[in-house]
Amino acid sequence: MDPRILLKRSVAYTSYTQYNAHAINEDLKKQIIELHDLIKNEPSHHKDTIIYRQLGIYFAFAERNKDLAMPYFQKYLTCCTTYLGKIEATCFINHTNVMDPTFHDEKPSAFLSEVPYRDREGYVSLLAIKAAGLRYHALMLHRQATLDQASAPIKLTLALEKIQKSVALHRELLKLSPPAKIVLAETLHIQGVITAKLGEITANQHHLLIADKLFTEATQLAKEVCDETKALHFNKSNTMQSQAGIRKQLGYLDQALQLAEAALKEQQIMFGTGAHRDIAKSLHIVGDAHHAKLDYVEAVEAYLKALICKMQIVYDKSFIIDATKKALLTSLNCIPEKDKQLAFDLRKKIYHAMTDETKTFINPCNDFVELIKNEMNALRDAISPKQAIGSVTFPAAPRLNETPKVIETEMRVSLHHS
Questions:
Q1: 132, 117 in Cβ contact below 8 A?
Q2: Residue 321's closest CA among 375, 361, 294, 356?
Q3: Which one, of 92, 5, 65, 14, lies nearest residue 314 by Cα?
Q4: What is the dihedral of CA 167, 171, 172, 174, to 10 degrees?
Q5: Max intra-chain CA distance, the chain
Q6: CA–CA gap between residue 238 and residue 228 (Å, rounded)
């Protein structure tokens, strides 16, 4: 029998959903990856509708991989023939899009949040979709507010209204469907994010304290899910990320660092140590905590790791990468002027990391590489012969929109005798 048929049957008849995809066993994971490799380039077929749904759920809710999940959810939407299926597919697509923190929908459709779920069959499913639609709309308003400071208070207030309605619906859903606990945790997390942003722009610490409490509740719910399923869930680590940021703003710097490092550790267990959006964000927050503690060398190390991650990831907008470049430079420039050798060594490390020929950089940041190279040259010239440990001849940075090729760096070391 065609291996595709056996694998399709195996995946189609499993019971995993968006609520428990994080906890599926290793054998099923292998089957999913094998099936993905066999059908990823095939045209869509209506008979495989459920397969597209299940593969999309795995990549979105277990791997947190937007690039792999989105094609399957789009095929699911195309092949669906029922009203419930189509709005569920739209809901999954929205969830997948927002994995990219730079994605923002200028005019988010309100139809999901206006689903007349009380008058239709499939009450629980429609309730979940309506709640998710409200959450998506609230998150889009929040992201718009971060890009338009003038309208931010109005948009954040509206976002808060929608997310509070979503939380209420998710609490109702939890009574009917206990596995929905993890989605309530996610929604409380987003309510905390919106509340924290409102606190930032209004300089109101009360909002920050409310956000901190929301993050604590969300983390506790996610922890309960992890304990019940005996598996880590990304919602827990993502909420810890956000709470680390709040604790930093409130002045609890040691707590902020501990939370960020704990989130990073869990994410590396779930997703490995390669380039991943969640890992990149945690690394940046670790850098923020170190910078706030005046540990500038540690901050540079964390920001550099975050930047190397982001250089390998597709983002809808570049500002997320620019933020890490700016933070890295800020910490780098806080190194005392007298420590020229340290400043030189850190820049050399940054330069070689950003021109590493073993990595495929989607966002090569050539201007930044050139800036670091020029600063290194200036520092090298400023170091006296007795202090200098060596000099470096640099190749030109790769051209824009070109994957860096093998870079040969000639090291010329001169020993200076007094």
A1: no
A2: 361
A3: 65
A4: 130
A5: 90
A6: 19
Phi, psi (degrees; rounded to nearest 5) at 393 = -100, 120
| Paired strand residues for 392 | 411
CA atoms within 13 A on the CB side of 269: 13
Place of tokens 């959903």: 17
The amino acid present at 329, given as its one-letter code, is L
Euclidean distance between CA atoms 189 and 139, whole angstroms: 11
Least confident span in 29-33, 115-119, 352-356:
115-119
pLDDT class for 21, splitting at 50, 70, 90? very high
CB-neighbour burial class of residue 175 (10 A; exposed 0-12, middle 13-18, buried 19+): exposed
- Exposure string (b/e) for 129-157, b if CB count within 10 Å is 16 or more? bbbbbbbbbbbbbbbbbbeeeeebeebbe
- Determine the length of the chain: 418
The span from the CA of 9 to the CA of 3, in Å, is: 10
